[in-house]
Specification:
It is a single chain. The protein is an alpha/beta fold and 289 residues long. It folds into two domains: 149 residues, Oxidized Rhodanese, domain 1, CATH 3.40.250.10; 119 residues, Rhodanese-like domain (Oxidized Rhodanese, domain 1), CATH 3.40.250.10. 29% of the residues lie in helices and 11% in strands. A five-stranded parallel sheet has the order 1-5-4-2-3. Helix 4 links the parallel strand 4 and strand 5. Helix 4 crosses helix 9. The chain is globular, with a radius of gyration of 18 Å.
C-alpha cells in the first residue's frame, strides 16, 4: 500500500515559518507555457536566478524527462528521476515543497511526478511565487546554492497514477472512467489552434472539459474544496466515479489531479502523453464542438 498522503497544498505563511528547517527541500518547478504563435516564451531559469524563495533550487521539467521519445517532458524512468532529484539534494527523508513563478501551474506537474515515483511527502505552494512576493516575503537572487550533500532517493513507482494511450482509449470506450480535459475551452472545442504544430484540433469523444484556469481564486490560490466541487461537478464530472486527467502535454492535467486530491481523491491518474500524443496519432478519435 502507498504511504499515507499529506495535504497537497502548503500556505505561504506555513512555508515561511519553516524556512531553514532540516529535511525541507524547496523546488522551483516553473515551466514556460507556449504562447500564441510568434510570442517569445519567458525565460524561467533567468527569472529563478533573479528572484526565488530562499534555498530553492530549479527543477527543470524538460530535463527531468524521458528523452527517448519526441513527446514533450514525458515521465522519465525511476532511475533517471532518482538521479536528477538526488543531484538537487532531495532524499527519501525530505519534505518537498514545489512552487512556480506563475502561481499553481507547472508545480502541480512536479507534485504529480514525485507521487508517481512513490514520494508522498510533497506539497504545492498555494499561490506560488506571485503570492509569496505580494506578501513581502523574502527572496534571494544569484546562482542557486550548491547543497552540502547529495540526496539519496529510492523511487517506488506508483503506476496507478500514470495513464497511457491504451488506458485512455479503453476508458473512453467503456465509460468506466471519466476523462477530464484541462485545456482551455477554445482548444477543447477545436475553435482555437493547438500551440504545438502538427496536432489536430478538438478533443477525445466523451471527454469532459474542466479548464484548469477555472480552479483558482483571484489571488492565484486553489479554490476552497466546496467551490472546487461545485466547479468540477458543474463541468460535468461525477465525483463519485473514477477520473483520469489529460491536457496539452500533461502539465495542467496535474492541476485537476491536485484539485481532486484537495477533495480527497488521491489516486487520480494523469495521461502523460495527453494531447501531444493523442492529437498527433491518426488512430486516435477526435471530435470538435
Amino acid at each position: 500500500m502507498p504511504p499515507e498522503p499529506v495535504h497537497p497544498l502548503i500556505t505561504t505563511a506555513a512555508l515561511a515559518a519553516e524556512l531553514g528547517a532540516p529535511h525541507l527541500r524547496i523546488l522551483d518547478a516553473s515551466w514556460a507555457f507556449p504562447g500564441p504563435s510568434g510570442q517569445p516564451e519567458p525565460d524561467v531559469k533567468s527569472a529563478h536566478q533573479a528572484a526565488r524563495i530562499p534555498n530553492a533550487v530549479f527543477f527543470d521539467i524538460d530535463v527531468v524527462a524521458d528523452h527517448a521519445t519526441d513527446l514533450p517532458h514525458m515521465l522519465p524512468s525511476p532511475a533517471v528521476f532518482a538521479q536528477a532529484v538526488e543531484a538537487l539534494g532531495v532524499s527519501d527523508a525530505d519534505r518537498v515543497v514545489v512552487y512556480d513563478q506563475g502561481g499553481v501551474r507547472s508545480a502541480a506537474r512536479a507534485w504529480w511526478m514525485f507521487r508517481a515515483m512513490g514520494h508522498e511527502n510533497v506539497r504545492v505552494l498555494d499561490g506560488g511565487l506571485p503570492k509569496w512576493r505580494a506578501e513581502g516575503r523574502p527572496v534571494e537572487s544569484g546562482p542557486s546554492k550548491t547543497l552540502a550533500r547529495p540526496g539519496r532517493f529510492e523511487p517506488r513507482p506508483a503506476p496507478d497514477l500514470v495513464a497511457g494511450f491504451e488506458q485512455v482509449r479503453q476508458a473512453l470506450a467503456d465509460n468506466a472512467v471519466q476523462v477530464a480535459d484541462a485545456r482551455p475551452r477554445g482548444r477543447f472545442s477545436g475553435v482555437d489552434p493547438e500551440p504545438r504544430p502538427g496536432l489536430r484540433r478538438g478533443h477525445m469523444p466523451g471527454a469532459v472539459n474542466t479548464p484548469a484556469s477555472d480552479l483558482f481564486a483571484p489571488d492565484g490560490t486553489l479554490l476552497p474544496p466546496e467551490v472546487l466541487r461545485t466547479v468540477l461537478e458543474g463541468a460535468g464530472l461525477d465525483l463519485e466515479r473514477p477520473v483520469l486527467t489529460t491536457c496539452g502535454s500533461g502539465i495542467t492535467a496535474a492541476i485537476v489531479a491536485l484539485a481532486l486530491a484537495r477533495l480527497g481523491r488521491w489516486r487520480t491518474p494523469v495521461y502523460d502523453g495527453s494531447w501531444a500524443e493523442w492529437g498527433g496519432r491518426e488512430d486516435a478519435l477526435v471530435v470538435t464542438g
